[in-house]
Amino acid sequence: MQNSFNLADAPQLFVQSAETFYTQALAARIYGDKSAFISCGFKGFQDTLWDVKGRHYFKSCYVEGAIDFIFGNGQSVYQDCMIHVNVGLLPEVNQGYITAQGRQSAKDLSGFVFKQCTIMGSGKAFLGRAYGPFSRVIFEDTNMGNVVAPEGWNAWNFRGKEKNFMYIELNSRGIGSSPSKRVPWAKTQSSPSKGVSWAKTQGASQLNSYSVESFINQDGWIPKLL
C-alpha cells in the first residue's frame, strides 16, 4: 500500500516551501480488532500507517515514511519488521519521527511494541514523539541504524507530562541505539511508567506483559489467522 503524495516522485510539490506542501497522506488506516498483516508493505511520507485502534499484529512487514509514519492508538506488535526512514528524500525536512503513539490515560491499553525489527534509511528521525499524554512505545532487540536521532524521543505537545510516558528500549543494537545520548527525562527515570532506563536496570523479565501472547494474543486469535 502506497501513497506517493509528498514523495520525491512528485517534484511539482516542491516548488514552494516545505510548510506549504508536506502534509498527512495515509497509505493505510486500520480500525479492526484482531487484524494481522504478514509480509505487507506500507509506503508514504507523513502519516503512512494510521494504527487507529484495536489489537494488531504486523509480521515481517515493511513500513516507510518520515513524519509520524506509524501513529494512532492501536494496541499493536510489530515483529521482524523493516522500518525505513525516508527523511533524506527531501532535504528541506530537518528531522522526522517514526512513531506518534496516542495513549490517553494510564488505563488505556494501547501502545506500539517493536520486536526484532530493523530501522534504516536516510536523514534523521526520532524513535517517537508523544501523540497523547501517556504515550507508550517499546523497542526490543531492534537493530537501529544511524538514521535514529541521538535524543531518541520528543515530548512534542506534552512537555511537562514526560513522567507519564512509557518509552522503553531493551537489548537494541546498532549505531543508533546509544542510551547515553537519549533525552535526559527518558534516560534518568527509574520506574516502569517513566522511561528508557527502567528497561536497562530491571531487565527483560519485567517486559513479559509486552510479549505477543500477553499484549495482544490473550485469547489465541493470531494462530487462527495464520
UniProtKB/TrEMBL annotation:
A Pfam family that the UniProt record links to this protein: Pectinesterase
Stored SUPFAM superfamilies: Pectin lyase-like (SSF51126)
Composition bias, Polar residues: 187-197
GO molecular function (one): pectinesterase activity
Regions crossing the membrane: none
Gene Ontology terms: biological process: cell wall modification; pectin catabolic process
Pathway terms, separated by semicolons: Glycan metabolism; pectin degradation; 2-dehydro-3-deoxy-D-gluconate from pectin: step 1/5
Location(s), subcellular: Secreted, Cell wall
Assigned EC number: 3.1.1.11
Domain Pectinesterase catalytic span(s) in chain numbering: 17-191
Record's catalysed reaction(s): [(1->4)-alpha-D-galacturonosyl methyl ester](n) + n H2O = [(1->4)-alpha-D-galacturonosyl](n) + n methanol + n H(+)
Highest taxon in the source lineage: Eukaryota
Cross-referenced Gene3D superfamilies: Single-stranded right-handed beta-helix, Pectin lyase-like
Keyword vocabulary terms for this entry: Aspartyl esterase, Cell wall, Hydrolase, Secreted
Region feature Disordered, mapped onto this chain: 176-197
Family classification: Belongs to the pectinesterase family.
Xref: PANTHER family: ACYL-COA THIOESTER HYDROLASE YBHC-RELATED, PECTINESTERASE 52-RELATED
Full protein name: Pectinesterase
Organism: Cucurbita maxima
